[in-house]
Amino acid sequence: YQYNNRYAGDQIFRITPTSDAEVRALQKILGQIKVDFWQPNSASLMHQNATVDVHVKRNDTQDLHARLKLEGIKYRVFISNLQNEIEKQSGYRSSRKRR
Amino acid sequence: SESQYDYEVYHPLEEIQNWMFEMNRSRPELVTLFSVGKSYEGRPLYVLQLGKRGRPQKKSVWIDCGVHAREWIGPAFCQWFVKEALSSYKYDSVMTRLLNHLDFFIMPVFNVDGYRFSWNTDRFWRKTRSKNHKFHCRGVDANRNWKVKWCDEGASSHPCDDTYCGPFPESEPEVKAVAKFLRKHKKRMKAYISIHAYAQMLLYPYSYKYAAIPNFNCVESAAQNAVTALHSAYGVRYRYGPASTTLYVSSGSSIDWAYRNGIPYAFAFELRDTGHFGFLLPESLIKPTCTETLRAVKAIASGLLKKC
């Protein structure tokens, strides 16, 4: 596997806070669960009705699912297994060619 | 050799550098390779100058790719631009005119250390790879490290944050080297373009404040022409406008620095997509993404040869 399979089970969540209250709740949640911000680049740049894409480690995905549901914040998972997507991105074909 | 190089796959740093040497060797009439300095880890910061030799101090365009390590489609586009420019010179009238009247400075990988780290260790690394003696975290956001309203809104002063502005402006040798080059050539530099991903946007100053730039009408029309040209390829729609309102407020960005240093047209592209693959754009989308973006860059460059 690429990167020693370190991204297996990690997910990318797309979260859409629809009010300032939800933005504040989301900032609190994402302050407690260590995530990697894909878009925007940091929690301070989040604002209502703007999508937030975060990379969540596999051990934290269930916790984040539960918290977002509890707060009623709209979200979906746009990459359900990051390792699979990484393997697909460069594809064995091309890396074999390169190697 | 040039004909075997595959522009529709992502390449690691060493392959890109070898490719640059090959471009320099095989097309000496249009290409010059040079380095603007060294990275934090001591790697050369290579730039390709493209353009027909001849008049000194030709109007110039700077294009950098790979400021953020994980945005691999950037370096892919810079290589695509060089390939298309060289292969269509004398066959495409627009590109021929551009290379005859302009010089293009192309930096395929701005953040060489970060790009290499994203290939070998952390695919989603963003920053440079500089060390911070007080914190274990490494790296500065090279697009928050420019000396323009440095480390203000939209940037972080904490070394472990992804938008860390750095200990001081131009603390990153990569940023300092490019800033020094642009300062040296600012009279001839008419456009600064920085390629990022992902969001499908074309952004221009200001990032650090809500205000219109003095030449707003000309820049807005250049941006409109660019996204119209981009759309003509595959129908992909880009949003465009001042970065502060179109995306968010962020200080210390390269386009604000370039603009404040006298470069009249400064743009940041956020290439495909809008959140399906994100940074993991498949190699199968390199060709359409680069084809449409090339149309936009040619539109911006062509605008420089007209009066506004």
Tell me about this structure.
The complex is a heterodimer of chains A (99) and B (308). Chain A has 99 residues and is an alpha+beta fold. Chain A has helices spanning 20-32, 61-71, 82-98, and strands spanning 11-16, 35-39, 52-56, 74-79. Chain B is an alpha/beta fold and 308 residues long. In chain B, 35% of the residues lie in helices and 17% in strands. Chain B has helices spanning 13-26, 73-88, 93-101, 112-120, 173-184, 216-234, 243-246, 254-260, 286-304, and strands spanning 31-38, 44-50, 59-65, 102-107, 189-197, 201-204, 239-242, 265-271. In chain B, α6 (216-234) links the parallel β6 and β7 (239-242). Chain B is globular and about 55 Å long. The termini of chain B are far apart. In chain B, 53% of the residues are buried. The chains are: A alpha+beta (99), B alpha/beta (308).
Question: Quick recap of the structure?
Answer:
Chain A is of the alpha+beta class and 99 residues long. Chain A has three helices and four strands; from the N terminus they run E-H-E-E-H-E-H. Chain A is elongated.
Give, in spatial order, the strands making up the sheet with the most strands of chain B: 1-2-4-3-5-8-6-7
Helix proportion range of chain B: 25-40%
The shape of chain A is: elongated
Low-confidence spans of chain B: none
Principal-axes geometry of chain B comes out as globular
Which two chains form the greatest contact, residue counts included? A-B, 30 and 31 residues
- Mean pLDDT across all amino acids of chain B: 97
- Sheet with the most strands, sense and barrel status of chain B: 8 strands, mixed
Q: Tell me about the largest β-sheet of chain A.
A: 4 strands, antiparallel
Q: Roughly how many Å is the radius of gyration of chain A?
A: 15 Å
Count of DSSP E strands of chain A?
4
How many helix segments of chain B?
Answer: 9
Q: Please mark out the parts of chain A with pLDDT under 50 across 5 or more consecutive residues, or reply none.
A: 92-99
Strand content of chain A: 15-25%
Oligomer: heterodimer
Distance between the termini of chain A: 15 Å
Helix content of chain A: 40-55%
